[in-house]
């Protein structure tokens, strides 16, 4: 029997290379799938917990408080974020294209995350060629800016992508781009492109050129690095690259590209400057608005419209600055402000000079300079801009005594001295100095109190104390008209004779010690009419009038005009303005004489609106002409106006009539004891203006300095602009007045009645008085 043999074929190798590769791929695929499932699960779990999009869907960005003139000129901005909300339809196409070209040119194609962009950036970064690229879309940037930090972690990137998808589901592409262009930070505290256009170029976004749009579009990546104010060279380099991108993407034509490439941009070097010097006004408005809106003041985008106008404010600012500098030129030069040692090495010298000038900023046209060399005939100095200037001839006259080698070393103008210079009309430089004296000016409508101009001091950046509202100073002779007005209600008239002769009082009558007052010029002219006493501002006349009507009555009567009784004690010194008032209070008081007897309250804010223009509050001022606001008889106001016009015609303020040549202006000078305060308070029937000058730490202004020489020129300087083209107004004589012998009287107190004289006896009026009465007869 044959046996059979079975032959077995070889078993396959379980670990063949082919199987290993397949197994490895399957394992990786499984792990990848698990990873993807885990990621999807994590994302699915995370998505419902993403923050709500209310801050975007109901976009209400922080917007600053803005202060405007009545004619819509921006004068102040307050808030951490400087932003002006602009709707998508109002953003110029060139600005949108500039942003898209550099930030996200596939914005309208992707769904929030640009996968092609991510792949491109990954390949670029893997090769290590050039700077690292990012792939964040505009939507992702919006997500990061609103909800996330800027940390570079996978978790943050994942949340960013999720939020981007969520945003794309809830907002249209145009809405997302609108939010981005309003929210993004662009340097110089500017948020959004509208604000940036204003800050960097001083213009509205709708008016920018292609070149300017490209410059702004370069800011989001790194506002500090590409800021045209801080880094103009780097900013231009990035601008040129963006222009190339816009051209290559077909956003601009060849002609536009060539024009934009070569356009010379004018960057605002001072990004905080406004078109009007109204810093005191802006701060006043800010304080008033904060009282009403508290912390919302700086985030709601409130727009505050003041009552001032650009033309009036400019006129007031220039007049005050000119008046103060004229005063400075009449007084000695005080020497350089400081000294530095200038190194021999040019680089070190430039750095030392730059550091010193940074500590002494310019004050408008009064410029700081460091002296490089000095002699009795020439001074060479350098400005903060790096410009070297040479001062010779008349430009040295003000400081000539300090150029001598004999001058004290600690006061001499020499190398390293910091001086102040300014240009005269011919553009030549001259040495000047920063004033120590202060000044204030305010003008307001006499009809409703709307403030037309307000300058609270010489330079807000040096002294933020608002002298219009905060400086309680003695008004001096500018207070006399209110004593005269009171006397008209006590039987006196402009024709009442009062003796201009020395007088003395004991301590009980003055509230202090025995008093022997004097006239300013220490001259006495004997009996004169009350009218002439005011015209010549005779102290003895005012004192005798107040003594007759009673200091208590004088004090109480003055409160009708808005003066505080507690700041004006009922003593005879009140006749010389020994109390205290502010320029703003004085403006309201003099307006009563100007408008026929009505009390008005000066006010600054006409209305406040929200960012959409909705009116939130609006002024409802008291007006002249409403009998409820009458505080003195119309006849009293007419007579006081008549006497105050005499002051401006041929009295202590005659310079006003000589310059303005208007018969409808009136006012009163004021110079306090020892020439510590100088005032002029005056008006035309429609506008009242108050000018003041003095030192913050009260001291003598100079033996020959008076209100007529210091404050009046400021008032005239303002009125030359404010009254240009304004017709002359003739005042109607109110009922109840009669005229006799060239003078007006209350009908119930005709000549021969009432108080005919004070301390006169039978002494006749001087011949000069008769001559002036004849002049008055011709005027009437």
**Overall mean confidence score, pLDDT:** 88
**Helix/sheet category:** alpha+beta
State the helical fraction. Answer: 25-40%
Percentage of residues in DSSP E strands: 5-15%
Strands, total number: 21
Helical element count? Answer: 24
Pathway: Cell wall biogenesis; peptidoglycan biosynthesis
Transmembrane segments: 20-47
Biased composition (Basic and acidic residues): 770-780
Region (Disordered): 755-780
Structure description:
Its main location: membrane. The protein is an alpha+beta fold and 780 residues long. 37% of the residues lie in helices and 14% in strands. The chain is built from 24 helices and 21 strands. Strands 4, 5, 6, 7, 8 and 9 form a 6-stranded antiparallel sheet that branches. Strands 2-1-3-14-15 form a 5-stranded mixed sheet, covered by helices on one side. The model is unreliable at 1-7 and 762-780 (pLDDT under 50).
